[in-house]
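Morning!

This is the sequence you dropped in the shared folder:
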Amino acid sequence: MPTTQPSLITIPAWIVASSLVLFGSACADIDTPPSEGWVVADETPTMEAVASPVDQPPTIRPTTIERLDCELETSTFGETWWVEPHFNQFSANEGLYFAGSGYAGDGSTISVADGSTFSSNTANGLRSVDDAWKVGAFVDYQGGARIVDLASRATLVSTTSPHIAAVRVSPDGKQAAFITCGEDSSLITLVDLVTITSRELEVDLGSPCYSWAPTRTQAGFTSDGRFLVATTASGTLWSINTDTLAVQSVEPHGRLDDEALYGTIVSDMRVRPGTHEVATTGVDGTLRRWSLDDMSKIGDDIEVGYFRINEYTYAPQYDVSPVAFTPDGVTMAYVNRDGDVVVSNSAGSSVLPSPAAPPEYLEYGRTANIPVTLSFGPSGRRLGVSYYWGAGIWGCPGAAIARRGSVEIDVPAVVQLDERGYATVPISVSSGHPVVAIRAVTRDSEAPTFAIDNGQLMFWNATASEQVVTLEADDGSARSQVTVRLRLIQ
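The structure's back. Tokens below.
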């Protein structure tokens, strides 16, 4: 294990100035049917069948980091020409880290146990999950978005709108929010996932809304589901009370009034778990915290770094300055002006230096290896960092992985192709954890062509034949392999 050590600094002012407020669960009674354009799937399972953290706690309970002498457990590098963060998060058992930062949902999955990196497509299109990884929000690159029961892969509710700017699931899995861009305003649709009913609210999120760039429009729920928070590149932070639909706003770092394609006033936004508090970072080089009850500012500014990415590529350019909280809301991580991660709580603060990218990645003046996104694991003792040129996992004292025996994989033996030679085959995986990554697929022939996408084996341009396929699955605590003979028929 590499032994990159942090440097210790003083206790931050944000700890002294803030108070941790805990709230109970509060979900609105919503009885309005979904509006036109929204589709509720037939025989949709109710949320009683999709257990929320209230009914079934996550695998790992968060605890406070008493000491901040964290170490870099593993890091990976890869050349890139397009960085577009869309889903960067640990699995529920903290054994897998999904670093989704590439074009059209591309990304890597990292095994915490051995540091191996593979492309599994498990998080392809995924934008948000609840705390227990029971419900997920997906976007479709051809347009539209959907809320999915991750266990059965059943769609709970979906829309075909091509202008989805953001879609989020509440931490308790009982609510979802869709933000749709319009010419003069944005439509926010709140969906009660217990009753599968919805309410709509038009809000002027400002121009530009950037439906094509999911990093520009950000959204999140408070832990109790009381508030939905959203912000866009124009610079306004919006708070929507999910009970009353009352709207409040503030400009946390100024405002962008012109339709500039480059530059983002609010670089990142994160709700502090267990509170009605949100943290924002901006291009003014500050991190600020806001009360969602009255949109008042909390405490003093914190100096942070912000960095422009994709400057020397065809990808859209924008500024990043990530921030993250542990699940208990006690520890915060952000990036300083040197491009290193700072982790702070009441025990003090420490700096986690960014791994240097290989020199060949930095020729022609391309972007340095700066942190683009930050995400703590469920235990609060492990931090995943997606850098511009790769990813890293930092382990703090007490970090561990829940272990189990094996992962069982089941694939149908017969595949029915359509007239185009196309078919999707569900992969059934039995595991003690709600997400499993398919690490690898091998076959005895170059034809037909197939790929893995969100738990399905996909064939296209195939012909009737027999194929021997080997699948390897990993749920973050165990890894298994199975070889099956598939008979393709038309």
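Headline: Residues 13-17 form the longest helix (5 residues).

More detail when I'm at my desk.
O.
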